[in-house]
TrEMBL record:
This is Carbohydrate sulfotransferase 2. It comes from the Eukaryota. The keyword Transferase applies. SUPFAM superfamilies: P-loop containing nucleoside triphosphate hydrolases. Keywords: Transferase.
Amino acid sequence: IRESLQVVRSRDPRIHRMPFLDAGHKLGGKKEGGGGSDYHALGAMEVICSSMAKTLQTALHPPDWLGFVNLSVSPEMEKFALNMTSGPGYSSKPFVVSARNATQALSAWRTALSYQQIKQVEEYCHQPMSLLGYERVGSPEEVKDLSRTLLRKPRL
């Protein structure tokens, strides 16, 4: 809750808050005992996805003043990125940075989240997910069919 509250407090007050798809639904899958953690997690998700959408839009249409940076990727940075996406571990804890198996993590959410939870994330995060090439799921069966990819060519 503490971490989610920190994110929610950074929210732009001009942003319109999206309603829950199902106000009685709990992210943790429990109908009781979750308290405000789900509410704050959804608020944090809204802030994070809104920020990500703005960042991706800037990458697609960079302002002229951004051209001065001319950054290149160093071999050390490539090695770091490869290490962070090919590690043996997987963590479901939020805000934990560690080396993970990207292939395994890519589909883990499809078995860990309920269909209702996935629809909630899609509703809050549709803009950045669309830019990154994510196709919305159509049914619970489609989610669990790991042979079907939910990615198309991203717009970036």
